Amino acid sequence: MARPDKAAAVAELTDKFRSSNAAVLTEYRGLTVAQLKTLRRSLGENAQYAVVKNTLTKIAAKEAGITLEDQLFAGPTAVAFVTGDPVESAKGLRDFAKDNPNLVIKGGVLEGKALSADEIKKLADLESREVLLSKLAGAFKGKQSQAAQLFQALPSKLVRTVDALRAKQAEQGGAE
C-alpha cells in the first residue's frame, strides 16, 4: 500500500522539478512551524516550499534529468521550487537564513544546472529581473536621446554652413 503512495510522491516531485525554473535544497532542522510559515510567505507567490523525503527527492530529480550530489540529501531536507524569478526567491531564503541560522541552504538547481550553496548566495546578491530590465531600458533610452540629438544637430549644422557660404559669396561678390 505504501508503494503507490511513494510512486505518486515521486511523480509529483518530478513534475515540480520539471516545471520549476529553479529548486533550492535546504535543511530546516530546528525551525518551528511558525517559522516555516513565515519562510513560505517570504518566498513570494512564485515559489513553493515543501518538506520532502530525501530518497524520493533524489529519485525524482534523477527522473527529471537533474544530477544532484548525494551530500545535498543529508539530514532533513526541504525544497523551494521556484517558478518565477529565481533571484527573488534566493534573496528570500538568504534573508530568512540571516535571521534564522537553523535554515541552511545546501545547494540547488537553476534551469537544469546544479548550483552550490555559495552560487545560490551569489544569485541572491543579483538585482531582481525588473531592476535589471529597467536599467537596460534606461541605457537604451540614453543612447536613443544621444542619437536624436546627433540627428537634430546635423541639419542645423548644414543650414549654418550653407548660410556661412552664402554670406562669404555675398562678401566676395560685393567686393568685386
From TrEMBL:
Q: Which GO terms describe its molecular function?
A: large ribosomal subunit rRNA binding; structural constituent of ribosome
The answer, when asked if Ribosomal protein is one of the entry's keywords, is yes
PROSITE patterns per record: RIBOSOMAL_L10
InterPro entries from the UniProt entry:
Ribosomal_uL10, Ribosomal_uL10-like_sf, Ribosomal_uL10_bac, Ribosomal_uL10_bac_type, Ribosomal_uL10_CS_bac
NCBIfam families according to UniProt: PRK00099.1-1 (NF000955)
User: Which HAMAP family would you find in this protein's record?
Assistant: Ribosomal_uL10
* Family recorded in the similarity comment: Belongs to the universal ribosomal protein uL10 family.
Q: This chain belongs to which protein, by name? A: Large ribosomal subunit protein uL10
